[in-house]
Design a protein that fits this description.
By secondary structure, the chain is of the alpha/beta class. The protein contains 17 helices and 22 strands. A hairpin with a 2-residue loop joins strand 15 (about 410-420) and strand 16 (about 425-430). It is elongated. The two termini are about 25 Å apart. The structure holds 1,4-dihydronicotinamide adenine dinucleotide and 2-oxoglutaric acid. 1,4-dihydronicotinamide adenine dinucleotide binds near residues 173 and 257. Pathway: Amino-acid biosynthesis; L-serine biosynthesis; L-serine from 3-phospho-D-glycerate: step 1/3. This is D-3-phosphoglycerate dehydrogenase. Catalyzes the reversible oxidation of 3-phospho-D-glycerate to 3-phosphonooxypyruvate, the first step of the phosphorylated L-serine biosynthesis pathway. Also catalyzes the reversible oxidation of 2-hydroxyglutarate to 2-oxoglutarate. It catalyses: (R)-2-hydroxyglutarate + NAD(+) = 2-oxoglutarate + NADH + H(+); (2R)-3-phosphoglycerate + NAD(+) = 3-phosphooxypyruvate + NADH + H(+).
Length: about 525
């Protein structure tokens, strides 16, 4: 039975996909300290969190069978991704389910600021009918500066356009063309500061974005600007914000997120023109169900060893790309696994060439899974789709990946050259129609071998009697031969024999075979 620990009040309705699995037990956890989590995490195969639980390196170190950490939401800054990656633990998030909730919360903040609703409401509830203090401004005709034009930034833009605002945006990773299609003008950051009446931030907290809205930024802004942060605490420097609000340059600010959460004692909370919500951006019934369902499905996929759509620490891919390359993923892994059993010496370099139709796809996931197939059988540590590239890099293995339209007589071909301190080994495989996977070349010898079961691979001198002698040894061990392929370049030169056998041939028999005159090497490969 696999166990999933669910923290932070993830929506119960969304956990239905997990509860439907016969072999998965769902445990709803109460709020825990780091020490408490460290104590229990060893029991769990998967952990689901929102933003409250911190998945620190200590927690990750204490995990014994954890395969996946799921974030029911977007931001994964509460999860130590490097620690997870090093340990081969997949980190998944649910990036789409709360976009609208966060965008609507941003609009609510903007309208709340423009019309001073929270302060007016507070005063009225205290028995004071005060109309004079709450003269607001309209959004129509105002310029909204959006920093970070991703999912939420774009959804905010669309809603603000409906309110007849003019949108300008800064996002160094979004093309102007993309913005133009949404009728958004891309500007530099200084220009955005200079022109915007309202500024809203929608990017992740990174080294680059931490305290991005600081004194220098406030200095460049318009008199009377209003600031909104429904993204991550720390993007806005709260001390600087307080200073510029008190000085009157900033007419109002609304924060849903704070540098330290929970936050109940900030001086900002004393200001009438400051609106605060306790990280509620994603807190709608709809969003919570959406993200819980999404993350539950990802957790199931990860626990079953299937590919996940929204992994943040391994190559993830669109469903469209996945459908196209899924059969090639199996082939790539098999080629890696095959090579692992053929090698002599320490791996120095892996060269993968993708040809034919494969040249049209993003082949990074194929290389990753090929490395997993290659390194997992060789190394002591657990190598998986998450950490395979990192493991290769940490071991000083150079990985080179190229694509070419020229498929060398095949519609598609994956060729893997592995260089060790003892030489080079080449292997190539293809997918024929109907996803029929075949090994088509070993060290330059053309063959046509299946990619399942056990096989003896025997490079030898092309002369009579060798196949018979190898077959006799296999027969003496009462092992059935299921099929055979021989590849040679020229008569009397070197050749390769691939003998399909029903069981693993024992080491002592392999040693006997190597002694046959003309046999150069014997490798037992199981796929
Ligand atoms: N308050 C809440 O409850 C919620 C907060 N969030 C947070 O909102 C933020 C945005 O989420 P999404 O739109 O889904 O993410 P996204 O990944 O779709 O968009 C982020 C955008 O920020 C841009 N960006 C990155 N670095 C930048 C920089 N230095 N300057 C300007 N732009 C930069 C990226 O190019 C990207 O377009 C995240 O931090 C997320 O954690 C998301 C949901 C709910
Ligand atoms: O789960 C939550 O309430 C917060 C959501 C959030 O901040 C995010 O998705 O990045």
């Amino acid at each position: 039975m696999m166990k999933v620990l669910v923290m932070d009040g993830v929506a119960e309705e969304g956990l239905a996909p997990l509860r439907q699995q016969q072999d998965i037990e769902v445990v709803i956890g109460e709020k825990m300290t780091e020490d408490q989590l460290v104590e229990v995490i060893g029991e769990y195969d998967a952990l689901i969190v929102r933003s409250a639980t911190k998945v620190t390196s200590r927690v990750v170190e204490a995990a014994k069978k954890l395969k996946v950490v799921g974030r029911a939401g977007v931001g994964v800054d509460n999860i130590d991704r490097n620690a997870c990656t090093n340990k081969g633990i997949v980190v998944v998030n649910a990036p789409d389910g709360n976009t609208i909730a966060a965008a609507e919360h941003t609009m609510a903040m903007m309208l709340g600021l423009a019309r001073k609703i929270p302060a007016a409401c507070g005063k009225l509830k205290n028995g004071c009918w005060d109309k004079k203090s709450f003269l607001g401004v309209e959004l129509r005709g105002k310029t909204l500066g959006i920093i970070g034009l991703g999912r939420i930034g774009s959804a905010v833009a669309k809603r603000a356009q409906a309110m007849e605002m003019q949108i300008i945006a800064y996002d160094p990773y979004i093309s102007e063309e993309h913005a133009r299609k949404m009728a958004i003008e891309i500007v530099t950051l200084p220009e955005l500061y200079k022109r915007a009446d309202f500024i809203t931030v929608h990017m992740p907290k990174t080294k680059e974005t931490y305290h991005m809205i600081n004194k220098e930024a406030f200095e460049q802004m318009k008199e009377g600007v209003r600031i909104i942060n429904c993204a991550r605490g720390g993007i806005v420097d709260e001390a600087a914000l307080y200073e510029y609000m008190v000085a009157g340059k900033v007419a109002g600010a609304a924060l849903d997120v704070f540098e330290t959460e929970p936050c109940t004692d900030s001086p900002l909370l004393q200001l009438d023109n400051f609106i605060a919500t306790p990280h509620l951006g994603a807190s709608t019934q709809e969003a919570q169900i959406n993200v819980a369902v999404d993350v539950a499905e990802e957790i199931i996929a990860a626990l079953r060893g299937d590919l996940v759509k929204n992994a943040v620490n391994m190559p993830s891919m669109s469903p469209k790309l996945l459908a196209k390359i899924r059969p090639f993923l199996d082939l790539a892994e098999k080629l890696g696994k095959f090579q692992a059993q053929m090698l002599n010496g320490r791996i120095e370099k892996v060269e993968v060439v993708y040809s034919g139709e494969l040249a049209r796809y993003d082949v990074n996931p194929l290389t990753t899974i090929l490395l997993k197939g290659l390194l997992d059988p060789i190394l002591q540590e657990n190598v998986n789709f998450v950490n395979a590239t990192l493991v290769a890099r940490n071991r000083g293995i150079t990985v080179v990946q190229t694509t070419t339209e020229n498929g060398e007589d095949y519609n598609n071909l994956i060729k893997v050259n592995v260089y060790t301190d003892k030489g080079k080994r080449m292997l190539a495989g293809t997918l024929f129609q109907g996803n029929d996977m075949r090994i088509v070349n070993i060290d330059g010898f053309r063959i046509n071998a299946a990619t399942t079961g056990h096989m003896l691979v025997v490079p030898h001198i092309d002369k009579p009697g060798i196949v018979g002698k190898v077959g006799t040894i296999v027969g003496d061990k009462e092992i059935n031969i299921a099929g055979m392929q021989v590849g040679r370049v020229e008569l009397g030169g070197t050749a390769i024999m691939v003998m399909m056998v029903d069981n693993i041939v024992p080491e002592c028999a392999l040693e006997e075979m190597v002694k046959i005159d003309g046999v150069l090497e014997v490798k037992m490969v199981s796929l």
